[in-house]
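@channel sequence for tomorrow's demo:
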Amino acid sequence: MAIIKPFRGLRPPKKYVAEVSSRPYDVLNSEEARAEAKGNEKSLYRIIKPEIEFPVGKDEHDDDVYEKAFENFKKFQKEGWLIQDDDEMYYVYAQTMFGKTQYGLVVCAHVEDYMNEKIKKHELTRRDKEEDRMKHVRVNNANIEPVFYSYPENKEINKIVDKIIKQKAEYDFTTADEVGHHFWLVSEKEDINKITETFATFPVMYIADGHHRSAAAALVGAEKAKQNPNHTGNEEYNYFMAVCFPDNQLTIIDYNRVVKDLNGLTPSEFIEKLDKNFLIESTGSEIMRPKELHNFSIYLDGKSYNLTAKPGTYNDNDPIEQLDVTITSNLILDEILGIKDLRTDTRIDFVGGIRGLDELKKRVDSGEMAFAIALYPVSMKQLMTIADSGNIMPPKTTWFEPKLRSGLVIHKLD
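structure tokens (generated this afternoon):
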């Protein structure tokens, strides 16, 4: 059973929400955050990217940077830019992008569910990144940003959400990237109890995005439990904030690859080597979008090719071997180009599909990269099958859009 609870959210008043809210800490660098926060003292970047309060070049992992996050967090509350709700509740958070809206519930997930793997992962985490977020949670004694979860679509939850969204939204605004953000309070006891009870029937939930934030939030909660001699299990630190979406509403987009060189091969020699494992069709000068699983587009030397993996080169009965990232990693990047480790090899870079296929073409035509591979996106079904089987996806496999907006609501751990 998935254990969740409502919480007293710390939120900006309506008039400040567009100024306070921000993109997640990990989708932009310090200089981009500095530029976005310029002239806006209420920007959440001053808490989640506090290095922008220091001269350019400041190490974001210095102790005084974390201290600045806490100082600013206190200031936001003192100035009334963040105010805590009087009652525990859930929240509905919806996002509209390209004419499609997805509806999530903001809840507190349970630390023990993470530790006991009832919250399923599909990516490896790095200890240094976990520790960075753990320091941020510790110093603020809060989950400033939510994690992004999914659950198998459920009619009871749909009914409650459908009822809530007929009411006037608490927040309703559109950001510069043309994503609409809509936010409602779920304050009626009957609805709150029904949500809690229904989630308790789910055997598991799935991390869609935010593996490092999930790990950090759960590890700090477990740490606090150990440090408290009077621990009962009911303390607020036993929970962390998540936005949970039904699996049938989420969109995973493509996550593509660009490579710096052809490992000493000429373009024609490279294409010749591809012929061993792929059916190849020349498609002119414009890179095409792959049509289905095991179909790929590559672009090099001003030319585009459609590749289809030959039968026998993949195993559709294995959740990892069937992935197109596995096929390209094994049969192109490793076998032909000698790229063994996607995490560490500097010859490869990754381009989220939100940037479009033109970005791949641009990076090759500029001479920065030798060729690009466009992949068909992974499905939620594939993600959940891999998570259920205890496997881990290869690096840079999933790209979810739209990203959650940070700063709509915060969970304090006391």
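heads up for whoever presents: The chain has 13 helices and 21 strands.
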